[in-house]
Protein 1
Amino acid sequence: MVAGKVERLERADYCIGQVLGSGIRVSFGQINPTSAGERTVTESDEIQRKSLKAALYKALYTEHPLLSVNTMRFLCLHGKGTSASIFKSQTTTFRAKLPAHFAFDFHDGFLPSSPAAGIDLFYPPPYYSFWNEQTPSAIRASHAWLDSLIARQGPYDGVMCFSQGCSLIASYCLYHQSENPSSPLPFKVAIFICGGVPFPALEDLGVEISDRAREINNSSSRALSEQASADSILASGSNRWIAVDGTVAGTNKVINPANVFGLDFTRIPGNLRIKIPTVHVFGSKDPRYPASLQLVQISEGKLRKTYDHGGGHDVPRNSEVSERIAELVEWSGLAASLSV
C-alpha cells in the first residue's frame, strides 16, 4: 500500500515541479498512466509563479479522476499550555494563502493547563494540554480522547498539529501501526510543526533510548522553557532562539540514521514507522530541533516533506515562510486525495 502511495505522489510531485518551473510542457497523464491529455504552460512576465501554482492545483482538482474537489478537512491540535484559539491565531497567515476548499477544525485539549512559557504575554487564558505528565498511560488516554473526537466530529482528511499536538499524533500513529497494522488510520496525512515523538511512548513500544538521547532531550526541553519565557521575550525578542550545543542544523545536514541525536533508527523495526504522507515544519534555532529531526526519521522516507524555516519554536508569520508552508499544506491535500 505504501508503494502505491509513493508512486502516485512521485508522479504528482513531478507534475507540480514542472509547472512551477519555467515554461514547460506538462503531461497530466503523469499522475495516472491511464489518463489522457496534455497541457502546455508557458511562464511569461504577466504570469507569475504563484498564478501558475494556483492554475495547476485547479486543473488537478477539477480534471483528474483520482482527486477530490470536496472540502479537505484538517483536525488541528495545539501545543501544551495553549488552546485552539491560540493555534488558530498562530496559523492565520499561511492559512490565508490556501484555496477555499481547505478547512481547519481547531479543538482544545481536554485537560486544563498552566500557560506555556511566555504565552500569557500575548494570549489570555484558558489554556489546555493533552497530558500534564508524559507517561504511557497519559499518552494512551489522549489517544482514547482523539478516537472519541474523530468519531463525533470526523471524518478528517488530515491532521495539523504543533508541539505537544505533534507528540499526540505521532505516538497515536506508531501505536496504531504496532497494534493494528492492517487497519487504516482515521486520517490520510499529517502536518507536524515543531514536533517530536515522546520517549515514554517509544520505550513502551520497545525502542531503546540511549543515555545520550535522554541527555539531549532533557537539555533541549530545559532550553525551550528558558528561551520561550517572558523574561527572554522581553529581553531579546526573536533573537532569543538559540539551538542547543551540538544540535545546530548546519552541523547535521547529513543525518546518520544510526545516531539521530542519540537514537539509533537502524535498530528500530522497519514496520514501526508513520506510514502516511507527512509534512515536517521546524526551525534550526528551536531548542527542540533534535526532536523534530527524530520525528522526521520515524516517518516514511518517500512520503514526507520537510521545511526548515530557520527560526525557533514558533510559526513565523513573514511572507516567504507563510508561502512555503501554504505550498506544503497544499501538497498534503493532494497527498490526501491520492491516498486511495
Protein 2
Amino acid sequence: MFYDLNIPYTTNHADLQRTLAFVAELGYNTIALSINLSGKLPTDLTSPIPSPLPFSIPPTLHILTRCTLTLTDPSQNHRLASLTTIYDLVAIRPTSEKTIQQTCLSLPTIDIISLDCSIRYPFYFRQSTLKAAIEKGIRIEICYAQGILGTGEARRNLISNATQLVRATRGGRGIIVSSEAHRALACRGPWDVVNLGIGWGLGKERAVEALSREARGVVVGAEMRRRSYRGVVDVIYGGEKPVVEKVEGKGKNQGAKGKEKVGNGGKRKAVDGLYAADVVDDVEKPPSKRELKRRAKARRAAAGGKADGPSNALQDSTEMKEDGDVAMAGFKDEG
C-alpha cells in the first residue's frame, strides 16, 4: 500500500475530485486531505473538511484528515491536544531553528514534522535533534510538488534540503515523502517518487518505505494515540464465546452416538448416557498396600493380638498377597 499524506484541501470540489481520481489511478491507497493553519488557534475549532465528501471518490481510496500548523513563535501555546481530537493527523511546519528544536524535543502530541524544502534555511539540520523526534515516533516529511512546478531556485532548494535531511537522519530513517500537490498535474506515481528519493541519496528500500511502511506507521500511531490508553493499551471487541449446547442422552442408541476426546487425542464412547470414564469411576478400585497391611493387622488383632516378630511379618506379607489377589480378581470380574 502506498500513502500520500499531504494533499491540500480546496473548496473547488471539481479540481479536488479530479486530483483524488488521478491519485487513485497512480496507485495510492491512502491519502490525507490537509488544512493549513497559522497563528493563534480560535476558541471553537472545527474541521472545514466535510465528512463525507460531497462527491464520489474511488472505492479503493481511503481518505484521512490532516492539520498542518505553521509554527513561528516558540513561546506561543497552540493547544495541540485539541487538534488531535478533530483531525486524524497533526503536522507542524517549523520556520526557524528554535521552532525545529521545540518541535523535535518538547511537542509530544504531533505526528509529522513537515519542512518547506522549497526555501533555503540559514542553518544545518542537526542529527541529534532529528533523532530525538524520530525516537518519539515523529516522522520527517519531504514534499516534492514545489520542486516540480516551482521555479529553478525552489528546485535547487528542494534537492539541497532533501539531501541534507537524508544525511542528518543517517540514510533516511524516519523520512516520509508526500506530494503537497494543489492540482493533479503536480502528482507523481509511487515508483517515480522512489526514483526521486534515490536521487536525493535514499536507498531503494528506504525510498519505498518512505511511501509505505513509514507512512503507515504514522497513521497507525495517530490512531492508537487517539483511542488507546496513553498510546499503549488498546481495548478491542474480540467477539463473544460460542454457546456450547450439552446433549443429554435419553437412551442407549442416542447415548452410544456421543463421543468425546480424552487424553492424547483418543476417544471414548458414551454408554447409556454416561461416559466410559464415569463408569470406571463407579467400580471399586483395588486396595493399596497400606490398606492391605491395615486389614491384616486388624485380623491379627481380632485373632488374639500376637506380638510382632519375624513370623508375624511373614504372615502379614502372606495375608497382604492373598488380599491383593482377591481384590484384583474382583476388580477384573466387575470390569
Protein 3
Amino acid sequence: MSSTLLRTSTAARAALRAPGNARLASAGAAGMSFVRGKATLPDLPYDYGALEPAISGKIMELHHKNHHNTYVNSYNTNVEKLDAAVAKSDVAGQIAVQPLINFHGGGHINHSLFWENLAPKSSGGGEPPSGALKQAIDQTYGDLESLKTKFNTTLAAIQGSGWAWLVKDKETGQIMIKTYAYQNRKAEYFSAIWDVVNWKTAEKRFG
C-alpha cells in the first residue's frame, strides 16, 4: 500500500481510473468536497495566473473550469444513474456504471490533489523539500535534481498524457515514482512545473 506525496500530469489534460470504492466515500484530498454525496469543484487556493510563468493562467483556467469540472459533473451524473439502478434492482446497470464512477471520481481526486501540489513562488512554490522527505529523496535518488531528471524522463516515456506520482510505501517507508498513461504530452511542462511545486504539502503527506 502506498500514499501519494506528489502527483503531476504530462499535460494540462489528464485522468486516472481510480481503484477502490466506487462512491469515493473517503477521498483523502483536503481541497475536494462532496455535498450530500455529490462532488463539487473546489476553489483554487491561488489565482489562475499566480503560477506564471511556469504555468500560464489560461491553461490553469481551462484545466480547472473545463477539464476538472467535467470529471465532477460526470461523476455526479453516473452516481445518479447508479442510485437509479439500485432502486430498480438493475444489477447489470449497476455493474455497467461503476467503471465510469471510478474513472470520473478518480479524475476528480487526482485534480484536487494536483492543485494542492502547486503553489505560487510567493507562497513557497519551488522551494526544495526539507526534513524527512529530503532525506528520503537523497537516499533513493541521490539528490533533488536527480529526482527531477528521473521524474521527467519517466513522464516523457509515457505515450500520450497521463499522471506521475512520487509515492511512499507505507510498509517499507521507501519512495518511488508511479505512472499512469492517458493521452497527449508536453515536454516543456515537465521542467517548468518544478518551479511551482508545493514541497511543503508533500512533506506533510510524507510525515
